Structure formats: C-alpha cells, structure tokens
Amino acid sequence: MIAAIDHVQLAAPPGTEDRLRAYYAGVLGMTEIPKPPALAARGGCWFQAGPVQLHLGIEEDHRPSAKAHPALRVTDIGAYAERLETRGARVVWDGDLPGHRRFYSWDPAGNRIEFLQPVS
After folding, report:
1. Distance of CA 115 to the CA centre of its chain
2. pLDDT tens digits for range 39-97
3. What's the predicted TM-score (pTM) here?
4. ∠ CA 2-49-78 to the nearest 5 degrees?
5. What is the Cα–Cα distance from 28 to 18, expressed in whole angstroms?
6. Alpha-carbon distance 120 to 107, whole Å?
7. 8-118 homologous superfamily
8. CB 44 within 8 Å of CB 111
9. CA-to-CA distance for 96 and 50, rounded, in angstroms?
10. What span, in angstroms and rounded, lies between the C-alpha atoms of 100 and 96?
C-alpha cells in the first residue's frame, strides 16, 4: 500500500556538491537538509521544499539520463521560470501536456527536471 513518494534520488559526479548546492538552494530555493552521518561519508547532498525531497548521490561514472526526471509541481510557474532564468539556469518551455504549463531545466550534473502547474 503505497501512500506517497518519500524522496527522489538523482546522481551527480564526484566533487559537484558545491555546484549542486548553488543550483538547488540558490536557484531553486530549496533548503539543504543534513544527511545521516553514515550516508554523509558517501558525499552528495539532500534538499527539501515543503514535503518534497531530492537526494543527490555521488556516482563515479555519472551519465545523466536524456528522459528520466523528477517533475515538481510549482505555483506561479511564470514567476518561477523567471527566477531560474535570472539566476542563470536554462529554462525550456514545453506545451505538449494538456491542462498544464510546464518547462524543463537542468542541474549542474545534467539531470533534467520538469516543473509544472495545472491550468485552472
């Protein structure tokens, strides 16, 4: 009986934690949350916004997926896209999902992230 998604894990190459922090905290506005000590030794970083958690784990031979991605529901998507762009993030709008406005952005490790808002 699945009740909810606890978190989504993405991968990143070794040594990218500072750039990930700049993107997820500085650009997206998420809060970094501490990793348990046993997991912190593995590198990476975790972020949260409300009930949504994204975990970035270190992967030696990281290759970002061209298709796989988390999708994050946002409010005021136009203002949020502008926030990302003014902070130097790439934003690509996509109008192919009926009933939604959405765009994609990519983190410093090349992971694609979808941002969407239902149209009332």
Report:
1. 9
2. 999 999 999 999 999 999 999 999 999 999 999 999 999 999 999 999 999 999 999 99
3. 0.94
4. 110
5. 14
6. 29
7. 2,3-Dihydroxybiphenyl 1,2-Dioxygenase, domain 1 (3.10.180.10)
8. no
9. 27
10. 9
